Amino acid sequence: xxxxxxxxxxxxxxxxxxxxxxxxxxxxxxxxxxxxxxxxxxxxxxxxxxxxxxxxxxxxxxxxxxxxxxxxxxxxxxxxxxxxxxxxxxxxxxxxxxxxxxxxxxxxxxxxxxxxxxxxxxxxxxxxxxxxxxxxxxxxxxxxxxxxxxxxxxxxxxxxxxxxxxxxxxxxxxxxx
Length: 177
Description:
Blueprint: H1 2-6, H2 14-21, H3 25-31, H4 35-58, H5 64-81, H6 83-91, H7 96-116, H8 127-147, H9 153-163
């Protein structure tokens, strides 16, 4: 994480990571194919920590809008923890894998969210297309935030919540405000 915060992951070699970790390259390749794969695993683990928080909050009596705001803010906190990694990945065309992984994570989350939803408000349209639309929207909001120093995390959260469809809230809690 330290090295990926200093320069794009596309410029980091397996030899360098192995040496820093005191491992052989063979040991690295026994678990990962590329430095990007390792980085994505670490980023996903942190994002999943946020989703576990979301699950506990669902039973705490928050409204759907409050849950959506907290969940989006938690993703913002994740991006802030790894801000330099995300920022570097957006400036290096060879590093699109980090952004693609963020989109993939949101896509998986959206598909899971819709599968858990029970209300009729979820549109009768291709859930695969809806998930991609939502994933690219959330990732695009993060990209806009990172690319513009005048945009704050709260601005990103406000915009993402404002753009979310009425049926979109963690755990889909119908008829809440």
